[in-house]
Amino acid sequence: MSITHEHSPPTSGAATQREREQRVRERSVAKYRERAADYDASCGPTWPIRERAVALLAPRPGERVLDVGCGTGLSIPLLRQRVGEGGAVIGFDHSEAMLAQARARAAAAGWRNVTLLHRAAQDLAAAIDGGPVDAILFHYTHDILRSPTALAHVLACARPGARVAIAGIKYFPWWLAPLNFWVYFKNFGYNGAPGDLTTPWDRIAPRLTHWTWTPTQYGMGYLASGRLASSGA
Ligand SMILES: C[S@@+](CC[C@H](N)C(=O)[O-])C[C@H]1O[C@@H](n2cnc3c(N)ncnc32)[C@H](O)[C@@H]1O
């Protein structure tokens, strides 16, 4: 797995982008240090979306699935149920506080086919052993979807044709625009870069074939899916 642009000579633009991404990550890690303890309790209302996202991804028995920004590991039981003991679930997150809960969940359940990595998406590609993954779940991972470096790394971990499913928050349509102040502040609590909510998928969509999306939650959420066109950066 190679991320070609990482080897290009640094330019001031690239350095600025790296610094910006670093600041976004620092804000995110700090937020989840505070949020981790109550995170699971806050996810009840979006549980049906999580189930729909996993159903859309449709992992098959024996497949390797990547759970992007896996947090406390809430999606892992749903993914494991589909891939079975012969498949594998790989979750990664840059928040040690969130990942500690995922590790506790995995240990309590005795899962042997779950790998949990303390890793930034921006530094992921070299960390995945065992070959390219067959499917990728992005469940409420807005910061990662907005980072070109993170996206390049995540997609480099998958085989061409890998299935991708995404669930997340977005702005309401224009006729409900006043409510978007609330959407922004809701997203602010969970992301280092809370804006860019009009078409939050617009950096990943060009990398996918069979692209489709549908609004959820009266328009303040979305579910999307596609297949990776090629695994190159
Ligand atoms: C809203 S939570 C979603 C967690 C999980 N996907 C879920 O659905 O419950 C976003 C997660 O993404 C992680 N995250 C954000 N930016 C990241 C990055 N650049 N690299 C790795 N993890 C990141 C956060 O630490 C957090 O755990």
The largest sheet has its strands arranged as 3-2-1-4-5-7-6
| Morphology call | globular
Q: Mean pLDDT score, rounded?
A: 92
| Main sheet makeup | 7 strands, mixed
Give the ordered list of helices and strands. Answer: HHEHEHEEHHEHEE
* Estimated structural class: alpha/beta
- Any low-confidence stretches, pLDDT <50, length ≥5? 1-8
List the ligand species. S-adenosylmethionine
Provide keyphrases for this structure:
233 residues; alpha/beta; seven-stranded mixed sheet; 7 strands; globular; binds S-adenosylmethionine
Can you describe what's shown?
- The chain has 233 residues and is of the alpha/beta class.
- The chain contains seven helices and seven strands, in the order ααβαβαββααβαββ.
- The chain has a seven-stranded mixed β-sheet with strand order 3-2-1-4-5-7-6.
- Helix 1 (12-42) packs across helix 4.
- The longest helix is centred in the N-terminal third of the chain and has 31 residues, at 12-42.
- The model is unreliable at 1-8 (pLDDT under 50).
- The structure holds S-adenosylmethionine.
- S-adenosylmethionine (SAM) binds next to helix 1 and helix 5.
